[in-house]
Amino acid sequence: MNIYVGNLPYSATENSMRDLFEGYGAVTTSKIVTDKFTGSSRGFGFVEMPNAEEAQKAIDELNGKDFEGRKIVVNESRPRETTGRDNRPPRRDGGGYNGGGRDGGNRGRY
User: Fold this and answer.
1) Whole-model pTM above 0.85?
2) Fewer CB within 10 Å of terminal CB in the chain, N or C?
3) With contact defined as beta carbons under 8 Å apart, do 76 and 6 qualify?
4) What's residue 108's pLDDT?
C-alpha cells in the first residue's frame, strides 16, 4: 500500500521516516519529495508498505501524531489529480508573443 505522509518537518530524512513506519511492519520504499531547484524538502513524502494490514495500522496510529516536533498527516495515497492545464489541447497558432500565427507573427506589416 502506498501511504502519503504530510506536514513533515524539514529536518526529517527518508531514513527517519522509514524507521518510524518500520515499527508497524516492513517498508519497501520511503521517499521525501524535494524541490527540483533547491533540493530542499517540500514537507511531504510517501512510504510503501507491502502488507495492507500493517499499512492500515500505521495510518491509524500515526495520523496526527508528533514526529520531530510536527503533527504529521498520514493517509492512503490517492492517484495524482490532473490540472486543467494538462487537459488543454495544444495551441495551433504558434502561441506566445508574435508567435507566428497565420501571418507568421507579422501582424500584417510589410
Assistant:
1) no
2) C
3) no
4) 60
Q: Torsion over CA of 46, 50, 53 and 57, rounded to 10 degrees?
A: -30
Task: Show the domains of the chain with their CATH numbers.
Answer: 2-75 (3.30.70.330)
Average pLDDT over residues 47-61: 97
* CA 23 – CA 38 distance, rounded (Å): 31
Query: Which residues have C-beta within 8 Å of that of residue 56, sequence separation ≥ 6?
Result: 1
Residues 6+ apart with CB under 8 A from 74: 3, 4, 5, 6, 58, 59, 62, 63, 64, 65
DSSP 47: E
